[in-house]
C-alpha cells in the first residue's frame, strides 16, 4: 500500500500548515482523524460480516452433512428392524399355535388403600397430651391469652 515514513509525514504536515494555516489546522486534523476512525470502523464491520457469512456457510455445509448422515442411519435402522421383524415372525410362527389360549386374563395390580386416619386414631389422646402433640389449633390471640404471664397485681 502506501509507504509513509517519518520524513514523508513531516513533509505533508509542513505543506498542510502552509496551505491551511495555523488557525484552521487543529480543526482540520480533528475532522480528518474522526473520518479515518469512521473508515476503520466501517472496514472492521465489513470484515466481521464477511467472516460471519463464511462461518454461516460452513455451518450450513456441516448441517447438510449431519442431516444426510442421520438419514442414512435412520434408513439402516429401519431396514434392520424390518429384517428382524420378518425373522421373528418366521421363528415364532410355529410356536403360537402350540400354546393354549388363556381363558381369563391375569389379575391386575391394585394398590392397597392406606387410611391415614386410622393410623392417627390409633395413638391415644393421653399419649398425645403427654408428648406435646397439638390436637387443636389455637389462634394467635388465644395463644397470647393462654400463655400470658400473670401480673403481680392480680395475686
TrEMBL record:
Residues 95-116 are annotated as: Disordered. It holds the Pfam family TatA_B_E. InterPro entries: TatA/B/E (IPR003369), TatB (IPR018448). It is found in: Cell membrane; Membrane. Keywords: Cell inner membrane, Cell membrane, Membrane, Protein transport, Translocation, Transmembrane, Transmembrane helix, Transport. It is a single-pass membrane protein. Part of the twin-arginine translocation (Tat) system that transports large folded proteins containing a characteristic twin-arginine motif in their signal peptide across membranes. Together with TatC, TatB is part of a receptor directly interacting with Tat signal peptides. TatB may form an oligomeric binding site that transiently accommodates folded Tat precursor proteins before their translocation. Belongs to the TatB family. The Tat system comprises two distinct complexes: a TatABC complex, containing multiple copies of TatA, TatB and TatC subunits, and a separate TatA complex, containing only TatA subunits. Substrates initially bind to the TatABC complex, which probably triggers association of the separate TatA complex to form the active translocon. This is Sec-independent protein translocase protein TatB. It comes from Limnohabitans lacus.
Amino acid at each position: 500500500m502506501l509507504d509513509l515514513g517519518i520524513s514523508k509525514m513531516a513533509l505533508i504536515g509542513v505543506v498542510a500548515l502552509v496551505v491551511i494555516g495555523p488557525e484552521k489546522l487543529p480543526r482540520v486534523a480533528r475532522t480528518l482523524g474522526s473520518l479515518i476512525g469512521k473508515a476503520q470502523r466501517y472496514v472492521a464491520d465489513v470484515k466481521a460480516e464477511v467472516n460471519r457469512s463464511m462461518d454461516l456457510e460452513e455451518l450450513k455445509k456441516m448441517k447438510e452433512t449431519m442431516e444426510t448422515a442421520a438419514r442414512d442411519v435412520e434408513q439402516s435402522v429401519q431396514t434392520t428392524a424390518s429384517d428382524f421383524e420378518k425373522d421373528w415372525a418366521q421363528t415364532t410362527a410355529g410356536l403360537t399355535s402350540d400354546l393354549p389360549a388363556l381363558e381369563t386374563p391375569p389379575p391386575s395390580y391394585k394398590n392397597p388403600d392406606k387410611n391415614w386416619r386410622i393410623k392417627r386414631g390409633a395413638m391415644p389422646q393421653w399419649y398425645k397430651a403427654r408428648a406435646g402433640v397439638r390436637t387443636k389449633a389455637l389462634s394467635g390471640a388465644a395463644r397470647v391469652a393462654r400463655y400470658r404471664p400473670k401480673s403481680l397485681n392480680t395475686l
